[in-house]
Amino acid sequence: MKEIIMFTSNTCPHCKSAKAYLDEKGYKYIEKNVQVDQFARQEMMARKMMGVPAFIIGNESVVGLDRFKIDALIDYTVETCPHCSHRTRVPKGKGKVKITCKKCTNDFVIQTRNM
């Protein structure tokens, strides 16, 4: 699974929207606030990223909340168990996948997609 790093600042309304989007989709991420963390600011500037929110997903960079590009770069989806509503990460593009819920041990099958 690719690591997701998001650069943010305290005063950025788009950063709040980006965090809400990632949370809603069930994507786990590392937040680096460039307003309070000078190392995060230096890392972001070294990558020539000049605005927040900015993301590093695997080896790719995204500046701004480009939902389509973010979803395309992330290599998994989050699926919900139909029995208990527990959410599980599932790799994209694997065809039919049998999932055993870690919470209730219910088995269910989903058709994975590339996007």
UniProtKB/TrEMBL annotation:
Domain Glutaredoxin residues, every copy: 4-62
Gene3D superfamilies: Glutaredoxin
Superkingdom: Bacteria
Record Pfam families: Glutaredoxin (PF00462)
PANTHER family recorded: GLUTAREDOXIN, GLUTAREDOXIN-LIKE PROTEIN NRDH
Listed name of the protein: Glutaredoxin family protein
